[in-house]
Amino acid sequence: MSGTMYRGGWGDAPLSDEAQRTVSHLEALEQQEAHSARIADELYAAHNGVPDIEQRRAVWEENNNRLAVRMAAEEGVSALEVHRGNYGHTPAEFVALAGARQDHEDRMRAVRNQQAFQRWQRDNAGYEQEPTRAEQIAESREAAKRAMVDKYRPEIEARRADRERLAEIRQVVGEVVEPVVGGLLREIDRTR
Fold this sequence. Notes:
By secondary structure, the chain is mainly α. The protein contains five helices and no strands. The chain folds into four domains: 1-49; 51-88, no CATH class; 89-122; 139-176. 79% of the residues lie in helices and 0% in strands. The longest helix is centred in the C-terminal third of the chain and has 59 residues, at 133-191. The N and C termini lie far apart (113 Å).
C-alpha cells in the first residue's frame, strides 16, 4: 500500500498529519503481518518438508488417516473397515456429539453466571433493594397458597387418614376373605 496518496477533507486536500500517521502505522502493521505469515509458512514447510500448501493439506490428511487407522487398531477394528468408512462417527452421531458438547458448554456458562451472581450478592449483601413488582406478585401468590393449604389442612389430613384406613381394611379383607372364597371356589369346581 505504500506509495498510495490518500486524500481527505474537501476536494483534493491531503489528510491531516494525524490521519497520515494512522495510515502509515496501519500499512506498517499489514507489512509486518504479511512478513510474519511468510515466516510461519516457511518454518512449517521446513519442519514438515512440504513447501506447497496443497501438498501440506495432503500430508495433513494422510497423517489424519494414519492416526484414524492406528486408533481403530487399538480398539480392535481392522484397517479395511476404516477405509470402507465403517469406523468413526456417522453424521447423526457427530451432530449428537456436537449438540451434547454445546449443551455442556451452556451448562458450564450458566454455572459460571450463577457463581458470578452469587459473588455479586455476597459483595452487595449490605445493600437491600426494594422488591420488584413481579417479586411482590409472586410473594402474594405464595402467601395465598399457604393460606389455602392452612384453611383446608384438616380436611386434607382427614382424607389422608381415611385412605390409610381403607388400605388397612383392604389388606385385612385380602388376608381373611381370599382364603375362604378361594377354598369355596375350589370345592365347587370339584363337585362339578
